[in-house]
Design a protein that fits this description.
- Helix 1 crosses helix 4.
- The protein is 41% helix and 13% strand.
- Helix 8 links the parallel strand 6 and strand 7.
- The longest helix has 13 residues.
- The protein has 2 domains: 112 residues, Rossmann fold; 65 residues, DNA polymerase, domain 1.
- With 190 residues, it is of the alpha/beta class.
């Protein structure tokens, strides 16, 4: 089948946001007297929704609500975006696909966080559609976000190529019926 749409993941694929997310969560947690290190973040939290990892982290701090940490992190996230890095090669690819291939950003991050990242890196104009975690009931590895993105482009998922980096994102893209190009963290593709 001919590819008529690109469905691009944000965190770790288009933009390496690991440093920005770590810094924002570390600052948010610090304001509640809780410390995390980058090794803990990388192994236990990065790529997961706050609803999954904050309750684990806060098990010994029942007085702190996970939602309070998440809200504090969201409020200060944009201040930490200098610690994020754009995948320039992928941005150039998206910009150069031409009018015959439609593009959508597919992430389960919050709309506010996504807007901050896209604005910071000046790439909001690359996409015909944007699907965020605010648009879906189920986060990746559910295929819901990919199916919705293809629909917003007026396409079937099987007419799209998803570009992903994480196991949950790859599973979501494949479950939607899209073909999947896997971007490795060492800069290669699989």
């Amino acid at each position: 089948m001919t590819i008529r749409g690109l469905l691009v993941d944000l965190d770790g694929t288009l933009v390496d946001t690991s440093g920005a997310n770590y810094a924002a969560y570390a600052a948010a947690l610090s304001s509640f007297g809780i410390a995390i290190d980058e090794a803990w973040w990388a192994s236990r939290a990065f790529g997961r929704n706050w609803r999954d990892f904050l309750p684990e982290l806060l098990a010994d701090h029942p007085e702190v609500e996970p939602r309070a940490i998440a809200e504090r992190k969201a409020a200060i996230y944009a201040e930490h975006l200098s610690a994020s890095r754009l995948n320039h090669a992928l941005a150039q690819l998206i910009a150069g696909v031409g009018p015959d291939i439609r593009t959508a950003l597919v992430t389960t991050a919050s709309r506010a966080g996504v807007s901050a990242v896209l604005d910071h890196h000046g790439v909001a104009g690359l996409f015909d559609a944007v699907v965020t975690g605010d648009d879906v009931r189920e986060h990746k590895p559910s295929p819901e976000a990919y199916i919705l993105a293809a629909h917003r482009l007026g396409l079937s998922p099987d007419a799209c190529l998803a570009i992903e980096d994480s196991p949950v994102g790859i599973a979501a893209a494949r479950a939607s019926g899209a073909q999947c190009l896997v971007v490795r963290h060492d800069g290669g593709v699989a």
